[in-house]
Amino acid sequence: MPTLRLLPLGVETPVRTGSSLSDILFPLGVEFPCGGQGTCGGCRVRLLQGELAISPEMRQTLTDEELRAGWRLACCTRVTGDLTLEIEQWTAHVLGDDTHCAFEPRPGCAVAFDVGTTTLAAQLVDLETGAILGVRTALNPQAVLGADIMTRVKAALEQRDGAGRLASLIRGAAGALTADLVRAAGRADLRAVWLCGNTVMHHLFGGVDVEPLSHVPFEPSTLAALRFTPRELGWTLPEQVEVVFLPCIGGFVGSDILAGIAATGIAEREELAALLDLGTNGEIVLGNRHRLLAASTAAGPAFEAGCISMGMRAAEGAITHVYFRDGAFECRVLGGGGPRGICGSGLVSAVARARQTGLIGPGGRFTNGKEWLLADPVRLTQGDIRQLQLAKGAIAAGLRLLLEQWGASLESLHAVYLAGAFGNYVDVTDAWRLGLLEMDPQRVVPAGNAALRGAKLIALNPSARDRWLRDLPSRVVHVSLHTDPRFQDTFVDCLAFPER
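Given the sequence above, the corresponding structure tokens read:
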């Protein structure tokens, strides 16, 4: 019996050969606006793995380019074998960056890339004017071999040609997005492609051995920038185009954090500031122009709702915020319809409301029962609350220890920048109520996609490139929290929810 895997929710289910895809997807919440006539394109799915025949209806509704990219119509499709599909209606918004950056005018254009574990974001910029000429986003196709970085490391080491397949998937996706950007803008003067991402993405893209990242002390095989020609990557671009994956800092602190430091400017100011990237591996940077400390801590996937019983990404049907009004809880749901699950910002919001109303005690236990029916059918379990405690405890403990090593206090922090999608959408006051952020919420600054902005700055400013790519990594001291004997006690101290 074939297996059908649906992204980005990660739903996996056995199906009968010959089953109509619309019959399978409708009970899961996928809508068919034209009633399955194949005329509206509203039920688009993208083929990531497997085979789906192209019907006459698809050729009428979808462009040749869309068909080549793997898009199909669910209403005109039957299952003939194992499939992995991206459901467009479920696809999360990928955080881009429309900030106008400083630039040094020169001919040509370049692509800046944020290679995320879950999503890819790319921008084509005009080197003469600094203007953004195009934006493309996509899910990271490596997700077919695992949703998180450690699962992918395991796949690279244990599956037959796992590393080669992972490299091929990410290189192919990045190359396709780059070619699409250049083609759509009608440009023939691409000069370079600058990519950044976490250490595992850096290694997998470059074909670098990830085995040292699979065990303590989690040391990368290399921290250096990786340089390629288009031919080496299998890209159909002119050979003079330079392709560079930016250097990492250490451990699980990757080039996305290096780019974030460049974007926020914390390495150039006198005031003490911090940069937090709250994902599966929470990265923390603390410093100013005199000194920089960086660390990563295994926060787990709770901020992305990856380990939550009814967790999902911030896509249609996700609860993003929870309110308490007139004695009742109210939920904001993306898309305005009924809820299907809860995303990371919604989890933080829900637990903050539960703490305010006494539904959850300081230790994280429900005061009445073992689960909470938030909005039918979405419920939170005691295990979900525990996962959030573990994640927020790891982040808070990491920042405490970096401050202690610096010889500073929370009150010394001039600003705390929250990078990434979760940091952009989470309510910082709710995060403060739960102890995820322990500083004054007024000092917390959502930084958006700082990684993409930093890569764009590096693309636009060649005279500053050595400062960012060579000098900056050498100035950052990588702190290994897992070897710090104080970490476990500090982590335990940070698990409880504070009284606010």
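The longest helix spans residues 382-406. Try to locate this feature in the token string yourself.
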